[in-house]
Amino acid sequence: MIGGARAILRKDLLIELRTKESVPAMVLFSVTVYVLFHFGLDRDSLDGELASGVLWVTLLLAAVIGVSRLFAAEREQGGVDGLLLAPVDRTSLFVAKAAALFLFLSAVELVAVPAFALLLLGPGLGGALPELLVILVLANVGVAAVGALVAALAAETRARELIVPLLLLPLLVPLLIACAQATEPLMRQDAGPEDLGRWLGLLSLYDVVFVLLSVAVFDFLLED
Amino acid sequence: MYSKGLVPLAAASVVTITTAFTLVFFYAPLDADQGFVQKIFYIHVPMAIVALCGFVAGGWFAIRHLRSGERSWDMRSYVAIHLSIILGLAVLVTGAIWAKASWGHWWLWDEPVLVSFLVVFLLYCVYYPLRFSIEDPDRQARYSSVFAITAGAFVPLNFIAVRLAEKYTHPRVLSQTGGSMPGEMRLTFLVALLGVALLFVTLWKLELTAKHASMQLKRLRNRARVAA
Amino acid sequence: MPALPLDEAGKYVAAAYVVFVALILIYVAIIGAKIARIERQITELVEDDE
Q1: pTM for this one?
Q2: Of the partner residues C4, C16, C34, the one whose CB lies closest to the CB of residue B35
């Protein structure tokens, strides 16, 4: 299982490195949304709950792009059939796709979070970096699990580009609540974690539930 | 046969709902803080509870479908979710009316149950475009079941998250369902809850009967076409 | 906020119960349309057979 997952993941990363389709688009999208928020809110710098809300909403909207492109290579070249003919079980396919999404999201955040700090954030991020890193990793696990599931659910429908955002965004509401609430105290002038344990607990619960759930139901998708 | 027990069920729902409405307006005492407006509680909360149970039941039927591969379980899941969405719409509208009457605003974001319900409702609304944009009937049933299970697991998680996000909790009637509700109010509420639940099961069976009848008819027509 | 007087509150309570009844009636109408279609198709089938 691990071998199969690794092979698919390597293929996805190679395609992304060669075509540079998802990650640069997601980064570009995030920066564009920051600009939109700057004008929409008419503010030069943000802090506290406004800052954490803008950051997380932007990152989750960018994730929608990644999720809707997740099965693009297979779809365009009829690769799903090829993958399913190969002796690879559905669980490895899920693990590979979720891992690819996790890496894409991390790569995007590597640029998009510093860009946010540079463009919009009032107080510096320096002191709160370790906490923010933990939140980002836990959030990426959750988005990757839910995203791979949603991408597979939408892959066979006619209205794919409609289904992905409509399905993904409500499913991410608990994750957004936890991330935005956990990040909010880190982005205040008097920065310092507050209630961090509660929100990390909620995030971990979300991750565990959706990873287990996705593994359990993924067998019934993409099958024929 | 899906129509088995439909008549007694329908009769029981009529009797229970009539009794419940009579109790609401002639028996239950006026609420000390909210007065007459609190009567909305007896229709709003039972509908919300039944709708959430319907969503969870839809997930349960979906699990049965994926386990057994029988299309009839997918149909049960679909009808349960369909009915719960309709009830959900009624829950949101009656909730807004209640909020307007007792707090002066049509919508309250610091009302965790109502807000969670909105998120759940928005998610389940995607069930229709997802289901009906898949042509192959087997695949449609399978994908719909995966959605029903995912969304069913999402319901409690979302309630926990929204509840945690509340900075302060409103003193309100809902919390009274816990224990401090006077006996007459509690009895009225329970009868109303039973009535809405019976109505839900009746309509669920009714729609399943109609669906089954039209599927049987389709088989008969195909047979007639082959014969001709 | 003090409780609304009965003539004000009555409207809201009535509205909430009307929403409930109206949705049930709409639902019954939808099922009715479905049954009407089944009936029409059965009639066609019987007429073709004769």
Answers
A1: 0.89
A2: C4
Q: What is the reported pLDDT for A76?
A: 72
Give the pLDDT confidence of B2-32 residue by residue, as tens digits.
888 889 999 999 999 999 999 999 988 888 7
Q: Taking the C-alpha atoms of B29, B94, A181 and A174 in order, what is their torsion angle to the nearest 10 degrees?
A: 120
- CA atoms in the 13 A half-sphere facing the CB of A126: 3
CB A116, CB A34: distance < 8 Å = yes
Give the CA angle between residues A29, A151, B118 to the nearest 5°.
Answer: 80
Amino acid at B214: S
Instruction: Write out chain B residues lying below 8 Å of C45, CB-based.
Output: 217, 220-221, 224
- What confidence tens digit (pLDDT) does each residue in A3-48 have? 788 888 888 888 888 888 889 999 999 999 999 999 999 988 888 8
The answer to whether the CB of B39 falls within 8 A of the CB of B221 is no
Using pLDDT thresholds of 50, 70 and 90, give the confidence band for residue B178.
very low
Query: How many Å lie between the alpha carbon of C35 and the closest alpha carbon of chain B?
Result: 7
Distance from CA of B97 to the nearest CA of C (A): 6
Computed from CA positions of residues B105, B106, B112, B115, in that sequence, does the dihedral angle turn out positive or negative?
negative
Retrieve residue A119's tokens.
């463009």
Listed by start position, the domains of chain C span 7-50
Say yes or no: ipTM exceeds 0.85. Answer: yes
User: pLDDT grade, residue A210 (50/70/90)?
Assistant: very high
Residue A190 contacts residue B148 (beta carbons within 8 Å): no
Q: Find all residues with CB under 8 Å of A133, minimum gap 6, and list them.
A: none
- Rounded to whole angstroms, the Cα distance separating A39 from A60 reads 20
Cβ neighbour number for residue A178 with a 10 Å cutoff: 28
Phi and psi torsions of B31, nearest 5°? -70, 140
- Rounded CA-CA distance B102/B121 in Å is 23
For chains B and C, CB pairs below 8 A equal 86
Burial of A134 (0-12, 13-18, 19+ CB in 10 A): middle
Q: Coil, helix or strand for B83?
A: helix
Cα angle for residues B69, B54, B14 (degrees, 5° grid): 120
Specify whether the CB–CB gap between A135 and A200 falls below 8 A: yes
Q: How far apart (Å, rounded) are the C-alpha atoms in residues A89 and A87?
A: 7
How many Å apart are CA A93 and CA B136, to the nearest integer? 23
Phi and psi torsions of B135, nearest 5°: -85, -50
> Which chains have 3 or more CB–CB distances shorter than 8 Å to chain B?
A, C
A212: closest CA of chain B, how far (Å)? 11
**Residue A168, CA distances (Å) to A154, B35, B98 in order:** 10, 42, 31
For A204, list phi and psi in degrees, rounded to 5: -65, -40
- Rounded to whole angstroms, the Cα distance separating A183 from A203 reads 12
d(CA B195, CA A177): 36
